[in-house]
């Protein structure tokens, strides 16, 4: 099955790396990178979507609306392998 990505929107975002962890598996090294994006409030963002940032795809792992205020969304993500 082939997955096709369809852009939802291009938005400004604050980006921050939360952690970086290298896992050695056999002869290769994989990097697990957890990140945070903060964007303006939107109602159409779900954890089934991905974010493309500087050519890297991040799975959205959590959508956080700070105390229910409709100003910003904090999106937590994990880099795809």
UniProtKB/TrEMBL annotation:
What Pfam families does this protein map onto? Answer: Phage_HCP
Q: Which InterPro entries match?
A: Phage_SPP1_head-tail_adaptor, SSP1_head-tail_sf
Put simply, this protein is called Head-tail adaptor
Source organism of the structure: Blautia pseudococcoides
